[in-house]
Amino acid sequence: MAVIDFRLRPPVKGFLDMVMYAKAERRNGITRQHGMEPAASAQAKSMDQLLAEMDAAGVTCGVVMGRCSGLYGSVSNQDVADIVKTWPGRFIGVGSLDPADRRKAIAQIDEALALGLKAINLEPGAYAQPLYTDDRRLYPIYAYCEDKGIPVTIMAGGSAGPDLSYTNPVHVDRVAGDFPELRIALTHGAWPWVHEILHVAFRRPNIYLSPDQYLCNMPGMDDYVRAANGFLSDRFLYASSYPFIGVKLYADWFRSLPIRAELLPQLMHGNAMRFLGLAG
To answer: pLDDT of 214-238, one tens digit each?
Structure first.
């Protein structure tokens, strides 16, 4: 069975300058909070080991997202495109942008698509000037992506902002309602607002959820699993959030969950293909 890991940050290019690799002790502490041990590939910052772990996990490819963040650092769209090109068939690229200048942001979307990237990643609460997801300065970006059929990923959950209000699902609820044809995937699954985001996803069919590391041994995990077994089975996105959790460790753990076996192909592959516009 083919598997797409929807949130995978490989140890190469601009990712190495980010806190997830530059501050290994911090990362490893978070890994252990999830009840896991650090992945050998992350410790060694080794692409060869990562690819071997992906193979052992049955992970066909990982989704690599660019980042333009004042809080967590940046990974350029060119870096993402280079990763996709260097390891063909193993990674799918998603671009990022700086929303500070609307016209430049639109140009960055076009440039990302020209590089072969398949979606646009926004991290509103982590920008140099933090924004709420429904900030009107982001609306031209949403409108452009909706008009062009470009899917958008939004980091909404965990530490995605200066305080808890930035991950409140009411913000993305408004965006999903205002742009009903825009496919939106929420990385970190709006955790810890689990019941609230599941309500939003229930009423907004354009919302996909990727709880990733916040599914793993965290409060609310049973509710995410119940949704994946039910109404969210066509919009749940499997993701490890590597390097915070190892690709193989997460895959083994995920397959042990009480998820209906017949749903695994769509949860771990088909939904991501459809979200990214890669399904036939």
So the answer is: 999 999 999 999 999 999 999 999 9
Q: Left (φ > 0), alpha (ψ -120 to 50) or beta: where does 277 sit?
A: left
201 HSE (CA, 13 A, CB side): 28
Question: Which residue type occupies 90?
Answer: R
d(CA 4, CA 8) in angstroms, rounded, equals 10
Q: Where are the domains of the chain?
A: 4-275
Rounded Cα distance between 105 and 103, Å, is 5
Q: Are 116 and 94 in contact (CB under 8 A)?
A: no
Identify the pLDDT of residue 72.
76
For residues 224-261, one letter each, b for 16 or more C-beta atoms within 10 angstroms of the residue's C-beta and e for the rest, the string is bbebbbeebbebbbbbbbbbbbbbbbbbebbeebebee
Structure confidence at residue 280 as a pLDDT band (50, 70, 90):
low
Cβ neighbours of residue 122 closer than 8 Å, sequence gap 6 or more: 96, 97, 99, 133, 138, 141, 152, 153, 154, 155
The whole-angstrom separation of Cα 132 and Cα 170 is 10
Which CATH superfamily includes the segment(s) 4-275?
Answer: Metal-dependent hydrolases (3.20.20.140)
DSSP assignment, residue 236? Answer: B
Q: Are strands 91-96 and 61-65 parallel, antiparallel or unpaired?
A: parallel
- The residue length of the chain stands at 280
* Residue 244, pLDDT score: 97
Please report which helix (H) or strand (E) contains residue 35, including its range: none
Rounded to whole angstroms, how far apart are CA atoms 144 and 124?
A: 17
| 3-class SS of residue 229 | coil
Mean pLDDT value of segment 29-38: 96
Residue among 227, 223, 168, 239 nearest 203 (CA): 227
